[in-house]
Design brief:
Layout: E1 18-24, H1 28-41, E2 45-51, E3 54-66, E4 71-74, E5 77-80, E6 82-83, H2 86-99, E7 105-111, E8 118-121, E9 134-140, E10 143-149, E11 155-160, E12 164-169, H3 172-175, E13 176-180, E14 190-196
Length: 203
């Protein structure tokens, strides 16, 4: 596995949080290799959410993996983790080395094209603890990723390339929302691995 050398990284947020974009941590060939395996071998399922008391099924698909059969509740639904695959363990180790953080779970997202995205939200569920670290590894289509401060409304945007790593930490989830905007220009799938640490509701 060939890694790119990265210079000292800076915080993408102006205040009240810390978001570090490491850029490519996988070269093009390795990124394509993992993308194809994840796309074809992960048991993807449509996500569900409860919004204003109504259960909806999203266009995007998800999968949930971890060290154990952890339960994870968000948007009014609960998921139980599958055990790591060999490839996910390889990617977890790589992300942990960059983040200098240990993760015990990962939520995988599959966006089939630019018609699928995520609305403004924070990953601030109790099971993740306070000031959690989330390592977000991207494969496939290049997509814009946005942040908005909960109080001031100030926004920041960045572009996530295939094989790149974005890390959210500190008070980011407390003070900032984030989203994956839709775009009719995007015609290809994107896979996003969000490595997390579950600290509550662990069996």
């Amino acid at each position: 596995m060939n890694l790119f050398d990265t210079e000292e990284q800076t915080n993408l947020l102006p205040y009240d949080g810390e978001v570090i974009y490491y850029g490519h941590i996988l070269n093009e060939n390795d990124a394509k290799h993992y993308y194809n395996i994840l796309l074809n071998q992960i048991p993807w399922q449509y996500d569900e959410a409860v919004i204003y008391g109504k259960r909806i099924v999203t266009k995007r698909k998800v999968a949930w993996y971890g060290d154990d059969t952890y339960s994870y509740t968000y948007s009014g639904t609960t998921k139980t983790a599958l055990l790591w695959t060999k490839e996910l363990l390889e990617l977890k180790k790589l992300v942990e080395e960059k983040c200098e953080t240990k993760f015990n779970s990962c939520l995988l997202n599959l966006y089939h094209d630019g018609d699928e995205g995520m609305a403004w939200h924070s990953d601030d569920e109790k099971s993740l603890g306070k000031n959690t670290v989330i390592g977000s590894l991207s494969f496939g289509a290049v997509r814009k990723f946005s942040f908005k401060h909960k109080r001031t409304g100030e926004k920041r945007d960045t572009i996530l390339d295939s094989g790149s790593l974005l890390v959210m930490k500190g008070e980011t989830q407390t003070n900032w929302l984030h989203k994956l905007p839709k775009s009719i220009k995007i015609k290809h799938p994107r896979i996003n691995l969000t490595f997390r640490t579950i600290v509550a509701n662990i069996p």
